[in-house]
């Protein structure tokens, strides 16, 4: 069964908010944007806003949808995760601690890709450029190594370009 989830990059000028997932959480020890599983019947945009508020204390507004990423692990023939990707440059509230993990602002030119999911370096720069994209990422069974990926990027004119690697 495929898990439907969201990630929402909170961008404030030349910095981005990332969260290091805590022990016992999926992706523990890795930096990522706030996000999580959708509640049954929940729209992805609503789920992204809810997850950001629950995990950070911030209430994002004017979310931008960037695309959908499908994640496969091992020999799976259907994705384990469908992750709806959003960003927000406007928000209210103040950061608060949560059980999800440590929060930290990073300069956009100092994003710690080496401490993130290996797929992030392929799509996060596109998000930061304001691009739309869809992708598939294939990891080993333990989710410790990215074996291959495919990303379709939409240009502002509606013409698509492909990025394939490995």
Description of the structure:
The protein is mostly beta strands and 166 residues long. The protein has a single domain (3-165), classed as Nucleoside Triphosphate Pyrophosphohydrolase, CATH 3.90.79.10. 13% of the residues lie in helices and 46% in strands. The protein has two helices and twelve strands, in the order E-E-E-E-H-E-E-E-E-E-H-E-E-E. It has helices spanning 44-56, 120-128, and strands spanning 3-12, 15-21, 31-32, 35-37, 59-61, 64-73, 81-88, 90-92, 101-107, 132-139, 146-154, 160-165. The strands form two sheets. Strands 1, 2, 3, 4, 6, 7, 9, 10, 11 and 12 form a ten-stranded mixed sheet that branches. A two-stranded antiparallel ribbon has the order 5-8. The longest helix is centred in the first third of the chain and has 13 residues, at 44-56. The mean pLDDT is 92.
Question: How do the strands and helices of this protein lay out in sequence?
Answer:
Layout: E1 3-12, E2 15-21, E3 31-32, E4 35-37, H1 44-56, E5 59-61, E6 64-73, E7 81-88, E8 90-92, E9 101-107, H2 120-128, E10 132-139, E11 146-154, E12 160-165
Parallel strand pairs: 1-7, 6-10
Antiparallel strand pairs: 1-2, 1-4, 2-3, 2-9, 5-8, 6-7, 10-11, 11-12
Q: Which geometry do the CA atoms define?
A: globular
- The name CATH uses for the topology is Nucleoside Triphosphate Pyrophosphohydrolase
The radius of gyration computed from the alpha-carbon positions, rounded to a whole number of angstroms, is 15 Å
What fraction, in percent, of the residue positions are helical?
A: 10-25%
Supply the helix-strand structural class.
mainly beta
SSE sequence, one letter per element: EEEEHEEEEEHEEE
The low-confidence parts are none
Calculate the mean pLDDT score and round it: 92
Largest sheet: 10 strands, mixed
CATH superfamily: Nucleoside Triphosphate Pyrophosphohydrolase
């Amino acid at each position: 069964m495929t898990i439907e989830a969201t990630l929402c990059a909170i961008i404030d000028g030349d910095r981005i908010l990332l969260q290091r997932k805590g022990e016992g959480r999926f992706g523990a020890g890795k930096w990522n944007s706030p996000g999580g599983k959708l509640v049954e019947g929940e729209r992805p945009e609503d789920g992204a806003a809810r997850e950001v508020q629950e995990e950070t204390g911030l209430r994002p507004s004017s979310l931008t949808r960037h695309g959908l990423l499908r994640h496969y692990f091992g020999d799976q023939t259907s994705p384990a995760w469908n992750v709806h990707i959003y960003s927000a440059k406007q928000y209210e509230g103040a950061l608060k601690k949560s059980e999800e993990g440590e929060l930290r602002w990073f300069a956009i030119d100092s994003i710690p890709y080496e401490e993130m999911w290996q797929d992030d370096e392929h799509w996060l720069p596109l998000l930061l450029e304001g691009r739309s994209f869809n992708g598939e990422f294939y990891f080993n069974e333990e989710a410790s190594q990215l074996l291959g990926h495919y990303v379709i990027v939409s240009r502002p004119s509606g013409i698509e370009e492909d990025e394939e690697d490995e």
